[in-house]
C-alpha cells in the first residue's frame, strides 16, 4: 500500500465546514493543494494532526550514511532507484544509505517501518559531502515530540499493523507446507551448488496470499551439513554485488520440516518455506540464502519475476 505525505510548509489556513458544529474547525495541512481541488465535491481536508513529519537527510555516492533505529527493520521503501540501501544481517536495526549516482539525482522520499510498529519518513537530497553520516533515531524522539507539538502535527512514531505475519495460523501454515512437500516438482535449473552441496528451487505454489517455496537440498559429501539459516531477500537485480544495495528481508510465515537442522552426508531432503505473496518489477529479484553453521559452504541463488509467475495454485 502506498502512503502519501503532503508538504507541511503551508500551515496557516484554517477552514470551517458545514456539517461541523460552528465551534469546530479543521487546521488544514496542505491548503494550496486543497484549494486547487476545492471545486471537486466531497473533498476531505488533511488535518495537521494527522500529518507525520519527515526527516531531511543528505546522501552521497562516495559516503555511506548510517541510520540506527530503536527496533529491527521490517520494511524499507525508496521513492526512486537513485537511493540504494542495505540492512546488515548482523545488525538488522541499522540502515545503510547511499546515492546511486550524482547525475540527475532529484529529491525523493524514503520510508522505514520497524517491527515494533515504528514508522519513519525521510526526505532525501544529494549532498556531495553530507553534513551528517550517523543518525540515532531513538535519541531524536524528544525533539520530534517538541517540534510536532509546536506545529500541531502527529508526533507518535508508532503505527498499527493490520496483518502481521505472526497473526497467521501457524498450524495451518505447517499443514500447507507439509502438503507442498509431497507435490511433484516442476521447476528446473534454479539454485546453487558448492563443495558438493546443492540447493534447488523445485516448485512454487500459491494459496491465500502465501507463496510456498519447495526446495531440495542435497549433500553429496562425506561431511554433515549443519544449517545455520535460510533467508529470503527482495533485492535490486543490477546492484547485488555492491556493498550498499536496496534490500528488504522477507520473513517466512512457517517452514517444514521444522526439525530439519542437519543434512547428513550423502542424503537429500525436501524443505518448504511459506512466504508472504508479492509481485515485484523486473529489476528486482528474490534472493535465497542458505548458510552453514560454523562452516564455509554458503549457497545463494536468485529467483526472478518470470519464475515467480510460474507458481501454481495449491
Shape field: elongated
Class of the largest domain, according to the CATH hierarchy?
Mainly Beta
Give a count of the beta strands, DSSP E runs of length 2 or more: 21
Main beta sheet strand tally, sense and closure: 6 strands, mixed
- The stretches of 5 or more residues where confidence is low (pLDDT under 50) are 1-23, 240-244
- What is Rg? 24 Å
Oligomer: single chain
Q: Which strand-content bin applies to the residues?
A: 35-45%
Can you give the helix content as a percent range? 10-25%
The structural domain count equals: 3
Protein structure class:
mainly beta
Number of helices: 4
Helix and strand sequence: EEHEEEEEEEEHHEEEEEEEEEEHE
Question: In CATH terms, what is the architecture of the largest domain?
Answer: Sandwich
What can you see in these coordinates?
This protein has three domains: 14-50, no CATH class; 55-151, Immunoglobulin-like; 166-313, Sandwich (Immunoglobulin-like). The strands form five sheets. Strands 11, 12, 13, 16, 18 and 21 form a six-stranded mixed β-sheet that branches. Strands 14, 15, 17, 19 and 20 form a five-stranded antiparallel β-sheet that branches. Helices cover 11% and strands 38% of the residues. By secondary structure, it is mainly beta.
Amino acid at each position: 500500500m502506498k502512503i502519501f505525505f503532503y508538504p507541511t510548509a503551508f500551515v496557516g489556513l484554517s477552514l470551517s465546514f458545514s456539517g461541523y458544529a460552528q465551534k469546530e474547525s479543521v487546521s488544514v495541512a496542505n491548503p494550496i493543494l486543497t484549494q486547487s481541488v476545492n471545486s471537486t465535491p466531497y473533498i476531505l481536508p488533511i488535518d495537521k494532526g494527522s500529518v507525520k513529519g519527515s526527516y531531511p537527510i543528505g546522501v552521497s555516492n562516495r559516503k555511506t550514511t548510517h541510520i540506527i533505529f530503536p527496533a529491527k527493520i521490517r520494511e524499507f521503501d525508496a521513492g526512486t532507484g537513485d537511493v540504494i540501501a542495505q540492512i546488515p544481517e548482523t545488525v538488522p536495526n541499522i540502515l545503510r544509505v547511499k546515492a546511486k549516482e550524482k547525475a540527475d539525482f532529484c529529491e525523493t522520499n524514503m520510508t522505514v517501518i520497524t517491527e515494533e510498529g515504528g514508522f519513519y519518513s525521510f526526505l532525501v537530497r544529494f549532498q556531495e559531502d553530507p553534513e551528517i553520516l550517523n543518525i540515532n533515531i531513538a535519541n531524536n524522539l524528544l525533539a520530534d515530540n517538541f517540534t510536532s507539538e509546536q506545529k500541531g502535527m502527529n508526533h507518535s512514531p508508532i503505527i498499527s499493523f493490520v496483518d502481521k505475519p505472526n497473526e497467521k495460523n501457524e498450524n495451518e501454515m505447517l499443514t500447507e507446507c507439509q502438503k507442498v512437500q509431497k507435490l511433484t516438482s516442476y521447476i528446473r535449473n534454479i539454485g546453487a551448488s558448492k563443495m558438493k552441496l546443492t540447493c534447488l528451487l523445485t516448485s512454487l505454489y500459491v494459496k491465500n496470499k502465501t507463496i510456498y517455496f519447495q526446495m531440495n537440498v542435497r549433500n553429496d559429501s562425506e561431511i554433515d551439513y549443519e544449517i545455520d539459516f535460510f533467508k529470503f531477500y527482495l533485492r535490486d537485480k543490477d546492484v547485488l554485488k555492491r556493498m550498499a544495495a536496496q534490500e528488504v528481508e522477507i520473513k517466512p510465515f512457517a517452514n517444514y520440516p521444522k526439525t530439519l537442522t542437519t543434512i547428513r552426508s550423502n542424503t537429500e531432503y525436501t524443505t518448504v518455506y511459506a512466504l508472504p505473496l508479492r509481485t515485484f518489477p523486473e529489476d528486482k529479484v528474490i534472493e535465497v540464502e542458505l548458510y552453514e553453521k560454523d562452516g564455509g559452504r554458503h549457497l545463494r541463488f536468485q529467483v526472478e519475476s518470470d519464475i515467480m509467475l510460474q507458481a501454481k495454485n495449491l
